[in-house]
Amino acid sequence: MNPHLAPVEVPDPAALAHVQRLCDLAEPYAVGADALFAAAMAESNAWHARRSPFFAALLQDPPEAPAPTVGEGVRTPLVPAAFFKRHEVLSVPRDEVFLHLTSSGTTGQKSQMFFDEWTIRSAQRMVARIFDHYGWITPDQPVNYLLYSYEPAPSLKLGTSFTDNYLCDFAPARHTTHALRHTGSGHEFDVHGCIAALQRYAEDDVPVRILGFPAFLHFTLERMRAMGLPPLRLPEGSLVVLGGGWKAHADRQIGKDAFYADITERLGIPGDRVRDTFGSVEHCVPYVECAHHRLHVPVWSRAAIRDTGTLRPLPYGERGFLHLVSPYITSVPAQSVVMGDLASLHPGEDCPCPLSTDWFTVHGRAGVSRNRSCAVAAAELMKGMS
């Protein structure tokens, strides 16, 4: 068994028994767990209310009837993800903080998220179970990695860097290349190093895994074309798993279908082996595209869409703020977070894949903000490169 699939125990088995049962569900897209999810959310709310005056105050507000994401009688107080850019709110003592991650680059406002061991291990196990579901855990198959993320540095606490390096645990590395190289005083995007790595990997006999920010991969493919380089055919079994969005470079963003087709044309990786993801340091539950490129909601969470003016829940198909709910987190009262992303929610049957859970489409960021995310900061490294 992959060590990331091993059992993990909640901090208080008596107070969080339903949270434990929910997070122990091994099939990531199982259905029929609504009652268990509601019970787990009730335990999570009680846990945070006892430990966080901030969250206890939120529970004094009149409840929605019914709560749109988990059912009648279960509270889902709304906390904007941006709240964590300005406030540090913990539900565990600081000496129980196992990991501290941030959401932004080297300047600007950062979400400060603190994880006890249960929370981060539970989130990692969710990722492992989804990778296992798709057959992407291959302990006997070495791969070459091209990581479109930050090269690790002693002071680096970015969630994206942590995640991408964690994903390398699912297949042994023959060789690893980072696109954003550490210089000693920051990071620089090494586009020519990426191209050289792809050319070298194409001649190797093991699959390639490309992980990280999509804008950097797109920029690499653009540069290869501009240089007149011929298309490559990466070895069979190669995989692209993207995350982080396009953020400040939306003006350079191309449509998903065109982007995926370009990956297939330039690198020889079929479309069903190219997947985008959604996640954040404020809500670490992983959302990974199916083979038809829909972000299905796993069994450990629920999603809703909120009107941008009133925050009232919206029906399937309408666009609004993405609201994500999961009781897994015990370190910070972030079990019900309203993201700054505009999205629409759709029923499972509207996707031709075998999964039955709801799925969502992210349409972009809401409004214009001075807050800088990891991808915004990273994208700035691309200025002047084209």
TrEMBL record:
A GO molecular function held by the record: long-chain fatty acid--protein ligase activity
In terms of InterPro entries, this protein maps to: ANL_N_sf, LuxE
- Specify the Acyl-protein synthetase LuxE domain's residue ranges: 75-379
Question: Which N-terminal stretch is annotated as signal sequence?
Answer: none
GO biological process: what's one of them? bioluminescence
- UniProt-recorded name of the protein: Acyl-protein synthase
